[in-house]
Every structure is written in C-alpha cells, then in structure tokens.
Amino acid sequence: MARTSRSLAKLTAKNQLTIPGAALEVLDWPTHFRVQVSQGALVLWPVALVAPGTAASALGLDAQALRDGRQATMRRQAQVRPAEPAGEEASED
User: Fold this and answer.
1) Same domain flag for 23 and 43
2) What is the pLDDT of residues 15-28, one digit of tens each?
3) What are the phi and psi torsion angles at 80 (to 5°)?
4) Among candidates 22, 3, 23, 19, which has minimal Cα distance to 11?
C-alpha cells in the first residue's frame, strides 16, 4: 500500500509555496513539479528533469537535431511575440 501524507502548505507573501517535508518525503524529495489548476484545486505532479542530450537519445535523435529544433522554435516564437515597449524590460521571477 502506498504511503500518504496530509498536511497544510503555506503560500508566502512572495507567492512561494512551502510544502511540508513529510509530503515531500513520501514523494522521495522531488525538486520540480508540473502545476495545473483543475476544478478549483491546485494540483502538483513531481517531475524529473532530464538533460537534453539524454532526452534526444531516448527519442532516437542526435543532440544536434534537438538543438536545431529548439532554435527553430525560438525563432518562430520571436516572430509571434509582440515587441516590448521602449524603455521596459521583461521581468524574470
């Protein structure tokens, strides 16, 4: 039977979610989560990050094909994305 954990998470003033250690321990201490809002609930799934070269190999691609695809995607996004107003920079949180 799978272990479960019930506890409260806290949202800080800086919109950071503090997840109790007991809940993370049950999940084997993940560092990244996929986030979705579903029917008024915040749902988190633990995910494992994979290096691009490893992902390419798993898909039967070489690393150069993966880089080429990423660059093509970035070029397409740059064409669609509206320009930033003069004097303003995009913020990264």
Assistant:
1) yes
2) 999 999 988 998 89
3) -85, -35
4) 19
